[in-house]
Amino acid sequence: MAESARHVLTGPVEDYLKAIYDLERVGDAASTNDIALRLAISPASVSGMVRRLADQGLITHEPYRGVRLTAGGRSAALRTLRRHRILECYLTEVLGYPWDRVHEEAEQLEHAASEELIERMAKALGDPIHDPHGAPIPTRDGRVEEVALRSLSEVAQGERVRVRQVQDEDAERLRYLAELGIRPGALVRILDKAPFEGPITLWIDDGGGGTSRAIGVSLAAQVFVGASE
Amino acid sequence: MAESARHVLTGPVEDYLKAIYDLERVGDAASTNDIALRLAISPASVSGMVRRLADQGLITHEPYRGVRLTAGGRSAALRTLRRHRILECYLTEVLGYPWDRVHEEAEQLEHAASEELIERMAKALGDPIHDPHGAPIPTRDGRVEEVALRSLSEVAQGERVRVRQVQDEDAERLRYLAELGIRPGALVRILDKAPFEGPITLWIDDGGGGTSRAIGVSLAAQVFVGASE
DNA sequence: AGATAAGTTTAGGCAATCCTAAATCTCTTG
DNA sequence: CAAGAGATTTAGGATTGCCTAAACTTATCT
Hints:
The structure is a homodimer. Chain A is an alpha+beta fold.
């Protein structure tokens, strides 16, 4: 019953479901345009695929309103996400990939890797619960820890917070964040927030010493934080 | 210059090239029918793909005569074969896959794995030169050890030979061979060959003790051997 | 040589995915 | 409330890869 999962869904379909899953978590329903933007595909193509996904019962679609995952679609999205994140862990921890390059590689492999491969990797890693960028890894049975995190750009001056997760799509951004010491686990204090979307000055303590650095709002928006505890 | 190699060739194209490579090593040119049989595809479909491969300069095609790899096609085939075999090694040696299941998994992954991933795996394994079934692994620069091996079905009664390679496509066959102790490295003596394609009785010494077993000709034909040395 | 079997190619289709251009809908704003 | 901006969908195409049925080639056998 679990083995047949290999070719049930095509690569593109898995990508759509992942994108819709992500978009639904932020806004409400996923709009055609947002899906198109995220997948770098024309909106017209998304319309076409949306019909097919709806036909397959993976999403519900209210025309002009947006798209939502069904239970089946959500579970397929979470399976793909699990694959992706386990792969990222494995590539980083076992094969020595730098953290800015695992996303792209995992993006390819997630559509080809069997359930068995993923579970063997997960076991070799001791069943990790977060990927190298701090994203939670869905369990085999489709549960995810969905903690609402604030983005660093929303944190008030003076607050001390702990970095929990960073967006992993852009390799260059990841390299820069690594250079700054902004990675999951690092402690950050907001020293200053310049007005009018101005630079945010941080004290960053990633375990070693600390440094003070200023970053822009748009970069800060890609960094998610929780209580410093 | 090496990175662009990811999406140049599609999965099906890589499969055709591998098949043609194999067929060319046995017979002379690869025939439409043989390719179709090997890929479990209709001959008509092969005709169509053959035109596309020829257009791309990967093969030459003499209508009704067969197909041959060009230098470019051969090098692409060897790259895919390297990927496949490194993956088989890695799955077996690092992730503990049983040898009868690695082929199928590698078949999927070989189209998605980047050059970098393969080289990281190869390095982790100490640059192996044979896969778990004894097939030689092409080097990064496209060289292969192409030793002509005899199949076990051709060996004369009384001879002592060493198993070098077994065909890896059929999982059940592999399980049975493993049970018999017929694996690369095993020493085998032909005790008896019954006439009229009758059973071949072997003395098998796979390192531990030895046993005597009889197998059919068609199974023996899938086992390749060299000097016992 | 002519007939036939076997193998190959062409013709015509289908499904998945993507595209651009044009039509349509929704929503906000004057 | 009508108009326009912006988002969405439909129309019409292209490509890859596969299929069946029919036409065609090659080679063999009498």
